[in-house]
Amino acid sequence: MKTRTYMRVARFGAASAALALLAGCGAARPAEKKTDTPAAVAASQAAGPVVASFDCAKASTALEKLICSDAALAKADRDLAAAYAAALKQTPAEWRDRLRDTQRGWLASAAAACKADASSCAEYFESRTQALGDTLSAKGGREFVTLTTYHATRDPDLAGPEDDPALWETARLQISRPDAEERRWNAMVAAGLDRIMDPPPVYGGEGFVDLASVAPGFIGARLHRVHVRGPGGESHQIISVPWSLKLGRALTPADVFVDPAAAKETVARLAFEQYRKDGDADSSVTLETFRTLTAYDRYWNYEAAGLSLAFDDDNEFGGAHRALTLGTTIPWADLAPYLRKDLPFDLKALRDIG
To answer: Per-residue pLDDT for 32 more than 70?
Structure first.
């Protein structure tokens, strides 16, 4: 059985966001130069004074004082300052205010998360530094910008274990220089992630989008919700969105199959047959299992090799919670007799980018 891994960040514990970059978030201070070498860090530890991206002599908040109390954390702060400055410079002008907003939001969530643990704070810094480095990316012939919003709450109903705040983040992948059709795709992603992350994860989590495939006028995307259920585990919900740029909406079985009413039964049967051909099928998985799963076409991905179905662990199906991981692909050749002649995308041009 073929399965896929969609996680893009480490599992959340009590917290997963990082402390915010102070420069550019309403408390800008000049960054020091050439202070991030191992020798410089060692020297600062030995000498006592710590060099951060701001003047530690003027540290006033708990965050600033914690940074200035630890050389490794101060180095992480300098790395973060450099990553933020680079991201701000490279990001197209129309997105820069939003990038600044996400940085301010991160500062607020990190202030709740960091507390007095310098080593954990350094991890938070590194997580945000990595995210800033991924602000711009090229996928499927387009340039994308990723804007991540951060949230923290101490609401008793949402508090995490050991009295830590519940922290969660939402990473919105957006086409950086969109035309009118692509703006509708951007709006769909933003609204879709808002819906999938409502209600907020109880113990923290994340929402994000990745791309499965592209063709002229087509983008196959997947929306993810990772929900930490407590110290013992997490759930991962995936919703596929096969988006037609021309139509300005997600494709339905009626757009792809000659007989949309019979399409789900056809897909269930072919998927089950392919699943058994894969060679390591679970005997407890039956045709009825696939009928239940394929009833949700939001788990269908149109990919170069065929119609791919991915059912990840701990998803909700029909109101019943079941732990199940399945993945299989029905070749386009097997589907050919059931497909419309006027497909809204070019099968020959379809290529995977996930």
So the answer is: no
